[in-house]
Specification:
Length: 258
């Protein structure tokens, strides 16, 4: 008769089987491992993504915009795990805010020809619409993109860019661009004898003093409350066969002390 050996003290197996004692110890351990694994998976899958939304005060209002920044590939919202290698063209502005870009040119040459990772000025119309894939607060329907690293106009101290219906303050003077009354600029795709100008309806405010009038861009600076104010830049450029959108204008004003 074959007599089995008794289990050794502290031994795990008896006749090739787990002892009752060790089964009672192993089951709770296995259950604990399973529970911890479930919680780990749930946290990884369902944990909220990091909020990449910038403060609302830094995001411009929807509508015509001129933004300074650099052309980049938009970063993904989810930066964990495998990443696709495509480049979704976008703008990272000087406040670190990302925007998706849509080319208003059907040939897509405005965006595709723009330099990457250098200072640029993007002119277009902003729609506030978050992406579910990329870090972006909205989409800019692009009219023009140009390098501005050495642009003496927009980088000059005292300059401020204002769109239709917007108000901005420079050196204590609030300027509101109400509308464009006339645009007789020479189109950039036509050879002209004179450059032409625009006439804008503007409102200046400083304290209790308010002045609303039509301001030509090609005349001497306007004087207001000890300041000289002039129009130094007009966007977007005018084309021969395309009439500018009346709400797409953005003017750069220069405010100097007298």
């Amino acid at each position: 008769m074959n007599v089995s050996n008794p289990p050794e003290p502290g031994g795990f197996w008896y006749n090739g089987h787990m002892t009752q004692k060790h089964i009672s110890i192993a089951i709770p351990i296995i259950l604990l491992v399973i529970i911890l694994g479930v919680f780990a998976v749930r946290y990884h899958v369902f944990a909220p993504a990091t909020d990449t939304t910038p403060p609302s005060g830094q995001i411009p209002a929807a509508g015509p915009v001129v933004l300074l920044g650099a052309m980049v590939c938009l970063p993904h919202i989810n930066t964990e795990g495998p990443q696709t290698q495509e480049c979704a063209f976008g703008l990272k502005d000087n406040n670190g805010i990302y925007y998706a870009l849509h080319d208003s040119d059907p040939t897509y040459t405005t965006i595709s020809a723009a330099p990457m990772n250098v200072p640029v000025e993007v002119t277009g119309t902003l729609t506030l619409e978050k992406s579910d894939r990329y870090q972006s607060v909205g989409i800019i329907d692009v009219v023009s993109i140009k390098k501005v690293d050495n642009d003496p106009v927009i980088n000059k101290p005292g300059s401020v860019m204002i769109g239709i219906g917007q108000s901005k303050t420079q050196d204590g003077v609030s300027i509101t661009l109400n509308s464009i009354v006339q645009d007789n600029r020479c189109p950039i795709d036509v050879l002209c004898i004179e450059a032409g100008a625009v006439t804008a309806n503007v409102t200046f405010r400083m304290g209790p003093t308010v002045k609303t009038f039509n301001m030509p861009s090609d005349e001497v600076p306007q004087t207001f409350q000890g300041h000289k104010i002039s129009i130094t830049k007009i966007d977007p450029p005018r084309m021969a066969k395309v009439q500018p959108d009346p709400n797409a204008y953005i003017l750069t004003f220069l405010v100097d002390r007298e």
